[in-house]
């Protein structure tokens, strides 16, 4: 299990693919791990170097104290530096998309491109996130599944073309 010390913590990571190939760095969503990108890693195998990691406090990565977006941003830069990656194509989902946007703003020379999914440039009040995190800590991820499903997916009848 590869762990690397960066920014005051240890992050789990997986780096695979041919040396010298462009790097595609995947950043996971809240409550997910690097494995959420397994299918994409397989699809890019042989053509790209794929870097996946467990965000601080997720999966096999540690956490220390409060975590802010700036912390997650420095984690990725630390990971890239430790692995001698000068720049990468960044792919982020939800929280990973926030991290990728922050990297694009604060470290533009390190970002070759951005793919942002189910993310935002502005988030609802912090209280919403604190309540969701408290619920997961006390009751597990299953307690927020229904809410996540309604935020992530529309009802099938709303997906029909031409529906008003």
Question: Can you walk through the features of this model?
Answer:
With 164 residues, the chain is of the alpha/beta class. Helices cover 34% and strands 21% of the residues. The chain is built from five helices and six strands, in the order E-E-E-H-E-H-E-H-E-H-H. The chain has helices at 38-44, 69-82, 95-106, 126-139, 145-152, and strands spanning 3-6, 9-16, 23-27, 49-53, 88-93, 111-117. It has a six-stranded mixed beta sheet. Helix 1 (38-44) links the parallel strand 3 (23-27) and strand 4 (49-53). Mean pLDDT is 89; it is low at 157-164.
Summary tags:
single chain; 164 residues; alpha/beta; six-stranded mixed sheet; 6 strands; disordered C terminus
SSE order and pairing:
Blueprint: E1 3-6, E2 9-16, E3 23-27, H1 38-44, E4 49-53, H2 69-82, E5 88-93, H3 95-106, E6 111-117, H4 126-139, H5 145-152
């Amino acid at each position: 299990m590869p762990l690397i010390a960066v920014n005051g913590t240890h992050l789990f990571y997986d780096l695979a693919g041919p040396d010298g190939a462009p790097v595609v760095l995947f950043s996971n969503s809240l409550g997910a791990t690097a494995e959420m990108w397994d299918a994409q890693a397989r699809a890019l195998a042989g053509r790209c170097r794929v870097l996946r990691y467990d965000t601080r406090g997720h999966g096999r990565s540690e956490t220390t104290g409060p975590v802010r977006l700036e912390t997650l941003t420095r984690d990725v830069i630390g990971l890239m530096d430790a692995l001698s990656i000068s720049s990468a194509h960044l792919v982020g989902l939800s929280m990973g998309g926030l991290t990728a946007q922050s990297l694009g703003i604060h470290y533009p020379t390190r970002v070759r491109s951005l793919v942002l999914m189910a993310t935002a440039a502005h988030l609802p009040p912090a209280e919403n996130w604190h309540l969701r995190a408290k619920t997961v800590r006390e009751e597990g991820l299953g307690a927020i599944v229904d809410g996540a499903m309604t935020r992530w997916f529309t009802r099938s009848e709303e997906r029909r073309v031409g529906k008003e």
